[in-house]
Amino acid sequence: MFKTVATTPFDDQKPGTSGLRKKVPVFQQPNYAENFIQSVFDALEGYEGKTLVIGGDGRFYNREVIQIALKMAAANGFGRVLVGQGGILSTPAASHLIRKYGAFGGLILSASHNPGGPTEDFGIKYNIGNGGPAPEKITEAIFAISKTIKEYRIAESADIDIDTIGTQKLGDMHVEIVDSVADYAALMETLFDFEAIRALIKSGFTLRFDSMHAVTGPYGKEILEKRLGAPEGTCLNFVPLTDFGGHHPDPNLVYAKELYDLLMSADGPDFGAASDGDGDRNLIIGKGIFITPSDSLAMLAANAHLARGYKAGLKGIARSMPTSGAADRVAEKLKIGMYETPTGWKFFGNLLDADMATICGEESSGTGSNHVREKDGLWAVLLWLNILAVRRVSVQEIALEHWAQYGRNYYSRHDYEGVDTASANKVIDALRAKLASLPGTSVQGLKIAAADDFAYHDPVDKSVSEHQGIRILFEGGSRVVFRLSGTGTSGATIRVYIERYEPDPSRHDLETQGALADLILAAEELSAIKAQTGRKEPSVIT
Ligand code: G6P
Ligand code: ZN
């Protein structure tokens, strides 16, 4: 029932920041998905007879690739596969299943916050036994194998019914179709005080959770409306669609503008949140106030002890380099470790496994903890709700009080999307070339204290990751960072991260772009992005 199929390599199967992402038609080429999945299996050792978790965010082409992956897992000798019902698992739920059932690893089919549909994006990511994204050592091996692959193994069988909960067999392999939500919801109940949140909601506190027609719809319905008693209507856009209703399932102020406007209106709810295509990102908005992901990390870290799962305190905090330094000040006050990693959740895995960090976050709307090894959108929402349930103050009050205590890190990211790759590389190369000459000089009246190309030395496995972003640090704690996105599927995206630290509470209510105006000009003077790319404005400002 198993066959070996001869194939020829594709030269573009290099996993990016978060797995292999391509347009659907690229994945639909004969043998494309098969080659990549076989390359993943060939990069692993010792999985025979073990368990694999498979699930995806439900986007277009999800069901087809689930069938391919199942048949290949059987032909390659896995003993058992756990599949979310209908092929659905949010990324954090998949991470949890891998950990809970001691799986060897998992295949997560998602292109996260990128659009879905017949001509949009698809992705495949491999996660290891700790539940987290494969480290670079493995993704590099996968890529190397994909360039020389000659054959793959697959079962010749009818499609498996992935919609009915229960166990089936595919050859000798057990295929268990599991409820996509149950184990995850149970985990959340161990971390948070559902009783307190229920009481908060009962007292009249109102909220909206926008699933953006992506994977967290069923999770939000079960947890927020069913278990926490929020009224129907709390969950918005909760029916997962293969094309996310034609929208970008990216919870930021551009793509979740309707939610933002609702929260800014006088009669809006007290709290609003959204999550992305695969449920690992989050957006937090209080009545009248948007909380940046960097601030959210800092505020959650400062208050986490109020939730059951974190009452013993945090071991440490980790953030990606471009994420603002707001959390650093919390770590300093708590006298716990602070770790600065490259962009990409995979870099947090070692710190979490070694119990050096408890909470992690990224400016790209990712927050999470050691409960799984992925960032977790709904987790962030529930931790916020738990904190609000205990403190009984508004989101705005939490933010103002936090800034008064620690100072405010004004922060914004300017993206230039769909830039041609050569010009994007030119911008970064030119910056890199002049790094050594910058310290001591001034731009826009701002004195440069240091400038480097960020390299990360992993304190646990001692691996080194270089060229992770150009940092220009100014005197007084402001900075601009430049890097190329590693998650796009066409052309290049230049990201410019701008941050200014403001200790003075009388200046904590400035409009963000205005507060950063001199740094924005300095970034352009240093990089000449507009001149190099012919763009007048960033395509997205978050
Ligand atoms: C994904 C990853 C994150 C990363 C983000 C942005 O969501 O899981 O870890 O921060 O992409 O990556 P990029 O390379 O596009 O800036
Ligand atoms: Zn995502």
Fold and architecture overview:
With about 550 residues, this protein is of the alpha/beta class. It has three domains: about 180 residues, Alpha-D-Glucose-1,6-Bisphosphate, subunit A, domain 3 (Alpha-D-Glucose-1,6-Bisphosphate, Chain A, domain 3); about 220 residues, 3-Layer(aba) Sandwich (Alpha-D-Glucose-1,6-Bisphosphate, Chain A, domain 3); about 130 residues, TATA-Binding Protein (2-Layer Sandwich). The protein is about 30% helix and about 25% strand. It is built from 18 helices and 27 strands. The strands form six sheets. It has a seven-stranded mixed sheet with strand order 2-6-5-3-4-9-8, sandwiched between helices. Strand 22 and strand 23 form a beta hairpin. The longest helix is centred in the C-terminal third of the chain and has 15 residues. The structure holds 6-O-phosphono-alpha-D-glucopyranose (G6P) and zinc ion. It is an enzyme of class 5 (isomerase).
Summarize the structure.
By secondary structure, this protein is an alpha/beta fold. It is built from 18 helices and 27 strands.
Summed up, the helix count is 18
**Residues in helix, %:** 25-40%
Integer tally of domains: 3
The major pleated sheet works out as: 7 strands, mixed
What's the rounded overall pLDDT mean?
A: 96
β-strand amount: 25-35%
Compute the number of strand runs: 27
Name of the CATH superfamily of the largest domain: Alpha-D-Glucose-1,6-Bisphosphate, subunit A, domain 3
State the end-to-end CA separation. Answer: 52 Å
Question: What overall geometry do the principal axes of the alpha carbons give?
Answer: globular
Named CATH topology of the largest domain = Alpha-D-Glucose-1,6-Bisphosphate, Chain A, domain 3
Task: Give the class from helix and strand content and strand pairing.
Answer: alpha/beta
Give the strand order of the largest sheet, numbering strands 1, 2, ... along the chain: 2-6-5-3-4-9-8
Residue ranges: pLDDT <50 for 5 or more in a row? Answer: none
EC number: 5.4.2.2
GO molecular function, one term: phosphoglucomutase activity
Domain Alpha-D-phosphohexomutase alpha/beta/alpha: 13-152, 183-285, 294-406
Protein name: phosphoglucomutase (alpha-D-glucose-1,6-bisphosphate-dependent)
